[in-house]
Design goal:
It is built from 18 helices and 7 strands. The chain is α/β, with parallel strands linked by helices and about 350 residues long. Helix 3 crosses helix 13, helix 10 runs parallel beside helix 17 and helix 13 packs across helix 14. This is Sulfotransferase domain-containing protein.
């Protein structure tokens, strides 16, 4: 299989990124037809992603970042594993539901967990843990039924993925995604964004950030929404009518859970429960020194619909409206909900 097409940013764009995203020391490159932005070392993995062998029993949670990924992972894993709340509390979600392309995002030169390196070297004595695909192998070796997370667009996944396994795609309104992603990129050392929100909006509106562009990612999934093996969910629907969406998931996954069992899943995956469980939150070491000092270590934040109203000034709203028009072709088909709410039951 041929390698994915690569689009290189201009030198000016790379310097802008490096000046504000201190974690992107090597810059970013655009991969595939939608120019999905990833660190340059991703080029050693793209063919492996296309060639990955998914199984019929697999379920893939596919999202654009900060669209309810962690929430959906925990829901789906719990539903597919007999409501094993004990296991869910003891074992990290990243182990139970591996992050498919994390090798392409992680700073491979540092901070790889020693236990993962040891396991990799035990299987590959002469292998290089920095480039060997530790996290991809973790996904490959996960016990069935595998629940795998990805932020890759469909064009970077195996072409036959929907003929092979089921995919749950979750979309969220882009204003709230932008706010949530700003906090994410500001607090995590892998990105270490040092600008303010207005700076982040500027990068967002130019599709210059990790795993951009939003519209390209969404468009690829929306085009496949009628496929029998794809369930297209909206984050806002999951928030506003959680039980209804759990029943849709139950029917799609074929888990056959009772109303009471679904209520137990809803309670287990409430935002208060998930914020309190170390198994679904990364260790303190992944956060920047600044974030740790300021107490900003909430991987799972508010989970609210409409938090964007607290961040968008009239000037930023004007800029964002112009960006929204660039995705008008797909946006007019999608019933995004932007309203604020008071309830905070689950989410990211």
């Amino acid at each position: 299989m041929s390698k994915e097409s690569v689009t290189f940013l201009t030198e000016e764009e790379q310097q802008e990124l490096k000046s504000k995203f201190l974690g992107f020391r090597q810059g970013l490159v655009g991969v595939g037809p939608s120019r999905h932005l990833l660190p340059p070392h991703c080029m050693g993995f793209t063919k492996k992603y296309k060639d990955f062998k998914f199984c019929e029993s697999d379920v893939v949670i596919a999202t654009f970042p900060r669209s309810g990924t962690t929430w959906t992972q925990e829901i789906v894993w719990t539903m597919r594993n007999g409501l094993d709340f004990n296991e869910a509390s003891k074992v990290s979600l990243n182990v139970r539901s591996p992050f498919f392309e994390f090798d392409s995002i992680h700073a491979v030169h540092k901070d790889i967990r020693a236990d993962l390196v040891a396991k990799f070297l035990s299987r590959h004595p002469n292998g290089d843990p920095r480039t060997g695909g530790i996290f991809l192998e973790q996904a490959e070796m996960a016990p069935a039924p595998r629940t795998i997370k990805t932020h890759l667009p469909f064009s970077l996944l195996p072409p036959d993925i929907l003929e092979t396994c089921k995919v749950v795609y979750v979309a969220r309104n882009p204003r709230d995604v932008c706010v949530s992603y700003y906090h994410h990129q500001s607090s995590l050392g892998s990105a270490e964004f040092i600008g303010d929100f207005s700076d982040f909006v500027d990068f967002w509106c130019r599709d210059l950030y990790l795993q951009a562009p939003f519209w390209g990612h969404l468009k690829e999934a929306w085009a496949k929404r009628q496929h029998r093996n794809l369930l297209f969910l909206f984050y806002e629907d999951m928030k506003e009518n959680h039980m209804r969406e759990l029943k849709r998931l139950d029917a799609f996954l074929g888990t056959g859970l009772s109303e009471e069992q679904l209520r137990q899943v809803a309670e287990h995956t409430s935002i208060s429960q998930m914020k309190s469980r170390s198994s679904v939150n990364p260790p303190p070491s992944v956060y920047t020194e600044r974030a740790q000092k300021e107490g900003r270590k909430d991987f799972i934040r508010k989970g609210a619909i409409g938090d964007w109203v607290n961040y968008f000034t009239p000037e930023l709203e004007t800029k964002f409206q112009a960006w929204l028009k660039t995705g008008e072709e797909i946006a007019k088909e999608i019933p995004f909900k932007y309203k604020a709410e008071l309830a905070d039951t689950s989410g990211k």
